[in-house]
# Entry
Amino acid sequence: MNVVPDENVAAKIVADVKKEKLLPPKKVTLLKEKLASDGLDESDWVLLADLSSNEEG
Amino acid sequence: MPTRIEKIEMCSFRGATAAVALDLDASKPITLIYGDNGTGKSTILDAIDFVLNEAYGSLSERSSTRPKTHLPSLGSTASKLEVTITAGSKKWTGRLESDGPNTKGPADRPAATVLRRSQVLQFVNEAPKKRYEALQTFITLPVIEKSEAALRRASNTTSGEYNDAVTAKAIADESLRRLWEEEGRKGKSPWDWAKSEVAKDSSSLRQSVSTLNEILRASDASRTAGEKLTNSSHRLETAEKELSVSEQELTRLEGAADSGTASLISLLEETERYLEGYPTPGSCPVCESTERATGLKDNVALRLSAMKSLVAQKKKVDAAKKQVEQTRTIATDAEKMFASAVREMWLAHTETLSKGSGVDVKPAQYRLLRETNPELAGSEAIDEAHKLWQTVEDCRDRILSRRDENQKTLNQLTAIAGYVSTVETKTKEAKRLESLSKRLRRLLEIVEGHRKNYIDGVLSAIEGLVEQLYSKVHPGEGLGGIRLYLKPNVIGSLEFEGQFQHKSGVPPQAYYSDSHLDTLGICVFLALAKHFTTDNSVIILDDVLTSADSNHLDRLIAMLDDEAASFNQLIITTHYRPWLERYRHSGSKAVGLIELAPWSLSRGVRATKTKLHIEEITDAVKSRDRQAIASKAGIFLEELLRFIAMNRGKVPLQVDQKFSLGVLAGSIDSKLAKLLKVEEWPAGSTTPLTSTELKPLILAATEWSWVRNEVGAHFSVPGFEIPDADVRTFAERTLELAGRLLCGACGELPARNKSGSYWECRCGGRRMYPLILPGSIAPAGEA
# Structure
């Protein structure tokens, strides 16, 4: 029923993050380490994958 | 083409203890499933949820249940459970696999959205967080929310770690400054002083502390060895005294006995030991005489017994001698250990003891130190060892003082090194965390902002829809003005406010009745469902309404009829009979009716065909059931007259009051009767196809209304005399009136005031006049 618009909202978020250059590759690595030290992994922050690939591209 | 559910087949699923197939009329957008409590309504809806959403349905909301155990019917197993949904001639089959519900079928599976009464109550009664959860199906962004939660946690912990790093650096800085001041502010700054202190070589200090500790431990070990020596010497002295006393007593006893007694005892004891190996000798082992050889062993024992005291004392002396020997050995060993311990202590630390501790020892004066392998036992060795140990022990305080002083210096250097390291590492860490924290906060702002924008957008978009739906159910009641908004700075927390009379922004929970809150919850859900609807959406209302007065029920039904087209398919379950009866009466073309029979373990869920009132009367006429014809036609006529009279001003009926057929017929007086007419408007036409005055039809039906009482309601002898033809006439006249009032296209009565000039049905195919009796108060909206 719910045409989950996660993807649409996610795309807007990724666009904003890219625009502000908030997560260059080094920072993505740093953030991954941070999440891991908090007991989280990338699956907990799904958007991180999108941000990573965008930054690397 | 809409994809509507046509058939639901259940096997071993919840209440469906026996295989059952339910047919739904897919030509109708609404299906009403009526059943008393416990007849299987929730089972049917859970089956839809199970197949279309691969969900556990209502069972997941109930405590102490395990869906995998309790989803299969009582006495059945998960492997036998199977539910098949047919929609648009396609089939989807759901089974309970080890990892949960699993549906197989074509890709374009319809999506079902279920509203249960618990969600309605949750929405209107619970706290904002629970209210949000009630609507979560629609407004949640699971991926974004999960990311946001992880990001928030990362941001919080990063911020905390940054603060910790800054605090740790500040504490280390302050500690260095304090030490610097205590040391007389040497160097340019605490930091310069600390760095120079850390650069110093501390190995000699460490070695000194270690050596002094070893000397102290060696001295302690020597003391322990000396104490053992003292104890063993005391025990030797005691043993020797006891031996002396025992020997003196033995001498006294031997003196009192014959001169040869002692030798005789020895001889007899030897003989006794010999006879232990040869208990029955044939002759004397000494003289070889066979005389008195028998009983020789006993005779020897007897003679020794006679000299008992002497024998016992002799044994005591022997034991004392052994004790002296043992304790002497122990004492000798203790002497060696003590002397060895003292010698080892000296040899291991000669240099330190000579130079640093002020011990004044001349090794040449001690044989113990001078010789390579000195005798370690004996009084000379012990005296030398004791003298040496005492000399060291006399210097213990000086050794301790020196050790402590060195240790303190060492501790301070270690502390300074620790503080310096802390300042350096925490400075780097704080810098890194500050940068990361700023980025995380900004990321969080972006994610949170977009999530809120989206949800607020949805809520804002449906407010108009909610208002539209709610005003249909509660026209002119001063309610509505509903505003939904997220609680600031909280994830998943939904606030709402509304209007009561002329006051806006009030919490509806505080002012609205339970019934008004119920319908509000339903309208919010329907608005959301409409906002997100697709071509194959199935909306399910699971027993959401428990009570409503006739007016509101009629308006709710009308609203649902109006909105049904927006939802592709609307499935409603209810245990509220008036809802079913409204549809049975109107015979709406938009609604398919299913009535559930009582449930039993052996038969499970069973549906029966629900007949409309018109069909029931027609069937009764065919079966020539006089009482049924009269009774059903009477009830139907009563309902038609109630409808005609309602809101016409002449009889402003309070519809829940009980009016007899006679009162209702009388309420339509000549003034009203002259104006009453029904027009038939085919779709697209600009002029009515027919226009019929109702007065003749009403009179034609009501003149036979006495048949209802005489035949349909009482045991009456006069009633028996009424011909069948009269009974049929009553029914036919009632059906004729119904036929004019009910729309042939949508099946509705003309009960809607859309034009402000006349009443009309949903599709506009029937119009009824007058809207109001001249001079009366105008009706609100729906009849």
About this structure: Chain A has a mean pLDDT of 72.
